[in-house]
Amino acid sequence: MKHFDSLLRITTQEIRDILQTAATLKAGLKAGERPAILAGHTLTLLFEKPSLRTRISFETAIAHLGGNSLFLNAADAGLHGRESLPDVARVLSSYSDFIVIRAFSQTLIEEMIKYSRCPIINGLSDRSHPCQALADVFTVQEEFGDCAGRRIAFVGDGNNVARSLAVAAAHLEMPFVMSAPPGFEFHSQFLKRLHEQFPHVQIIQEPDPRKAVAHADIIYTDVWVSMGQEAETEKRKSIFTPYQVNEKLLQGAPAHSKFMHCLPARRGLEVTDGVMDGSHSIAFEQAENRLHLSKGILAWLSGKSVGSQPA
Ligand code: CP
Ligand code: NVA
Predict the structure, then answer these.
(1) Where do the domains of the chain lie?
(2) Residue 197, H or E segment
(3) Mean pLDDT to the nearest integer, 115-120
């Protein structure tokens, strides 16, 4: 049984298949097609944290594909205390064809996988956000025609979104520059793993955001305070202020560069209104693409990918 938990445990060809399926289903949807390839299937969403895009893109995706969804927050599911996690996993997966989990800890997702009888999808954890990363590289592919060789500069926190994006980028041979203040960069263990798995792809850290964006095709940022880090808000705001993506920073980037953000954005903090709403921004195309990638992931997990991208 397959799971969609980490982009470090999926092949490049499988990623290409998911991207191709998403592209086919997106083109079909624009032509009014909603193929019921998952008729009778139930998707359960088990979320410990709030969500707009992940929750609604998956709920809409399964509806378009002919199936249905159920949403449970962690308290209602009795995840912490009412019964053990293995028992929740065994019971929930006996009713479901897929479970999307949004968790504070990646360990919870890994534990669910151990006991689940159906595929588990990582809908964000403290360490990763693989669904977002696939929508991101899909958006780059739509924008630039191809991903290979396109350079991403991620300016801000070396967080869950940055990590998954770096892995997705490496699969598709995109150079990646992480520009974070000291103490918030990628950990050396994570970098070592990436360099071992993708020895030919450039993945570097550049603490100066101006140098990081100078040759970037894509400038990406995310919130400075992720869900679960609220107690660090004031400290983080002062540390990350020099990493704001604003008009001045973009002036030092190539004219053709695009701005991306996984959303939700804290306008006025990590990004200004001018950049979010400016001509470089493709953040809302990215958000729409979450729907198409949610379909691609569900189709891949159920062996119903449509089409395959050449390697
Ligand atoms: N980008 C993203 O995952 O958004 P949500 O937190 O709203 O799901
Ligand atoms: N890094 C953010 C992403 C939200 C989609 C968080 O974890 O809160």
Answers:
(1) 7-129+288-301, 131-287
(2) helix 188-197
(3) 98
CB atoms within 10 A of CB 94: 10
Sheet holding 218-221, edge to edge: 203-205, 176-179, 152-155, 218-221, 258-261
Pick the CATH number of 131-287 from 3.40.190.10, 3.40.50.1370, 3.40.50.720, 3.90.226.10: 3.40.50.1370
Of residues 20, 132, 141, 286, which has the active-site annotation?
Answer: 132
Q: Name the residue of 223, 225, 260 whose CB sits within 8 Å of the most ligand 2 atoms, as the mutation to test its pocket.
A: 223
Decide if pLDDT at 5 tops 70: yes
Q: How confident is the model at residue 93 (pLDDT cuts 50, 70, 90)?
A: very high
SS3 category, 213: helix
Q: In the predicted model, is pLDDT for residue 307 greater than 70?
A: no
Determine the atom of ligand 1 nearest the C-alpha atom of 49: 6
> Distance, CA 226 to ligand 2 centroid (Å)?
5
CA 96 to the chain's CA centroid: 23
Catalytic residue among 41, 64, 129, 280: 129
Superfamily name and number for 7-129+288-301 = Aspartate/ornithine carbamoyltransferase (3.40.50.1370)
- Give the span between the Cα atoms of 216 and 227, in whole angstroms: 28
Look at the pTM and tell me if it is higher than 0.90.
yes
Taking alpha carbons only, the member of 115, 46, 45, 52 closest to residue 80 is 46
Q: Which pLDDT score, from 0 to 100, does residue 309 have?
A: 58
At 290, list the tokens: 């979450």
What ligand 1 atom has the least distance to the C-alpha of 287?
1
